Amino acid sequence: AVFRGSQPELAGDYLAQVHRIISATQGLSSTHPLRMQYLLDRALYDMHMQKFKKAGTVLTELLSIQKTLHKEHPTDSRVCAALARTHVLLASVESGLHRPALSVKHLRHSVTLYTMSGMDQEAAHSKLKLANC
Description:
This protein is mainly α and 133 residues long. Helices cover 74% and strands 0% of the residues.
């Protein structure tokens, strides 16, 4: 599995939560609802199989659909939450290319960075890279 932290069962809970958050936005997309679901499922599968490059490509495509969705629904908190979680997954995948043993603590820290601090994507990415050394 991707997550080899001290509490691997929590990783499953975390990913289930991410899945619910991102899935909640798919109904808002008039053009890509099924595509969004497929991309999310595919990315989580690729992460589980430690195919980080593939997962990164898939998440990048999901992110572009979500950015369009965000332009259409700028005030919808579900879209913002889903976008933040996708950024976190992408950052985790990128760090997985260098350090496959991602921990739940690392992912939770990532979520906190993105959702609580109000940092922009680049600032959060650089913080994640520092935290991942």
